[in-house]
């Protein structure tokens, strides 16, 4: 699909196709789920997640060139011009990428020239400067006389510097396109004779042989052509051996004319014939600057011609330089920059070349120094920009193995969890999901992470041990929270909350990573081979298995035993369940692999300037707690009559009325302690007052917690026990433990441990609640109350799960037990339940209900248990 989108020449067409594909995916999934009877709560998240995945895969190819351009531009800002944007797109972004690559290449050439220019100019300027300074120092110190010979030596070095600067300026003007040609008819022989004389005046004493026709006339800029000839003749004269002439020849071609300059020197190696035309590519030891041939070639190019070294004639040695110029007056003026000087291997140089001047290392070996001073950093693209510093993505994250592990968990869920009640299969899926996330977790070797993982594994066990859905769900959510907090290494309550938010957000944050991971399948290596092997093997297995099953009845029975028979609705539902579990597991795995920065930046809290600003409010809260406890003591010592006369409430109603408020008061106490402790000055007296006032508040809170638990116990003794009330008791007790930890751990100065200790003790409280089997425990307490009072709320017992069945069947009369268990879903207690759907609570209930008549309706469709329920509720069944 991405390859098809690459063929589109407009990004608007691609965006339209992307929207259309997303709409089609959502519509198909919604239609498929509706036709298969999949509930909306399952169809909707799967459709959204799958659509996001498809969109990410398609959009990734569209924005990849832009992301690549951003990365390359950032590298260019650090001085590395080697990066390029790779794309097969032909739309506006693809064309922009092509222009960007061209610009990057041009900048790389310019940067290479700049580095070469700095290195070589400094090298070339240093030699004549050093010689001139030495001569002048000798003259100033009187070491040598100030005669014409020594003064001429200083002038010669100064003249060499002037010539070097002149050549540099001229070459810069040529490269910048400032130079314009003034073409005219120029007699070549006369011009060459003038140039030879100019070279001789400059100090070249060699001989020149000029073999040029008198009638040869060229159309060129005479001044520029003179500049070219003087440079090449001077170069040849410098390298020609003493006594050997420099031969200059010229002639006509069909398109223009040519000129050659030959000397009998060492010549130019074929590998160096282009290098010598680069700036400072020739030897400066004979009075040259290393720029003459570079200027000469550019003059030839300005005229639309060429200048190059060629092989000498067979019977001659040395170097042969050939100039070819056209006669066309309308040739364009070239402005292409010269090729950068490439470093050459160390070889024995001939007389016309010099060792490569020192140059800087290539750009890809530079240490990045960051963007230039005063410039704002380039924001990261895409979701990196959206999430910012809260959730940066570390480079080099493992991908394929994580996705494969999560996919296997999804397949296991679709195959075993669907159409089964919570049991062993659910535990296996959740443990598998946690294992897939833990094995790739960044902090998996952290002791806290290991402890949270073990604790989370224990918290999912109620799915296989208890039938009470509420307790199982509480355990699963607690396990998820503890595990995620462990893998993100959160330390504070704020970090715990951010971790919980990060889990669903990771399904969005990890989309680019997921897209890159899937694209690995299409790259080289063994991964594509493995994927192709699996796909081809499954297709072959399905085709040949179906053929042989239809051809042989015995083989078909074996296939039926191995492969379950699935209806269309079953198959679709299993796919939806598998996709949802895969997505949730992958989100947790990404959060573990690349945890968000859950901890807020530490802030310095300014303490209050006056002690009374925090001390008086705390003391007032202490006073309120004291007054409340005095009222509680009055109610206890006054008895039921005093409470009823004073409040108009029965004692049971009185104790039930304030339980929720006391729970809220306990929570607020923890907030007061936290807020006050942050505002205390770090002084001995202030700390003493803090420990006294807040310690008193915590001690009073523990008494309030005990009062709340006592109230709930009295109310349950009067009105019966329920699972919800037991759960609330456990929660209030856990708050009391947290308050006690605040007193002990906080008093010892280890307050940073409190959040994690509170987390661990809360998870242990949930485990303790599950370990007492709440439904069975509540049923036993209600039966105890029946045995004491003769009253039994069978209607409530009918709402309990199968966990209560053994207690009810064992301790109640047969008629009461049958009515209490008559609403149990018998299909959940069948003997042919799959092994992976095993649940201890249902298994024990199955044995307990044997022999009981659990028919919940009579012949007229009514409830035959109604008389029994009424009799036991009135206490008349005894």
TrEMBL record:
Listed name of the protein: Signal transduction histidine-protein kinase/phosphatase MprB
InterPro entries: 2C_sensor_his_kinase, DUF4153, HAMP_dom, HATPase_C_sf, HATPase_dom, His_kinase_dom, HisK_dim/P_dom, HisK_dim/P_sf
Protein localization: Cell membrane
Segments traversing the membrane: 45-66, 398-417, 423-440, 447-465, 471-488, 529-551, 571-593, 614-638, 658-676, 688-710, 730-748, 753-772
Keywords in alphabetical order: ATP-binding, Cell membrane, Hydrolase, Kinase, Magnesium, Manganese, Membrane, Nucleotide-binding, Phosphoprotein, Protein phosphatase, Stress response, Transferase, Transmembrane, Transmembrane helix, Two-component regulatory system, Virulence
Enzyme Commission numbers on file: 2.7.13.3
Broad class of the protein's primary localization: membrane
Lineage: superkingdom: Bacteria
